[in-house]
Amino acid sequence: MNIFYPVQFFADFLVYRLINLDPASRLGEVVNYFVFDSVKILLMLLVIIFIVSLLRTFIPPERTRQILSGKNTLLGNLTAALFGIITPFCTCSAIPLFLGFIQAGVPLGVTFSFLVSSPMINEVALVLLLGSFGPKVALIYVTSGLIIATLSGYIIGKMKLDGLVDDSVLSQTRPAQFYGFKQSWKQRVVYSWAYSLGILKKVLPYVLVGIALGAWIHGYVPAEFLARWVGGNNWYAVPLATLIGVPLYSNAAGVIPLVSVLTEKGVAMGTTLAFMMAVTGLSLPEFMILKKVMKTKLLVIFATIVAIGIIFTGYLFNAIL
Question: What is the value of pTM for the model shown?
Answer without folding.
Answer: 0.64
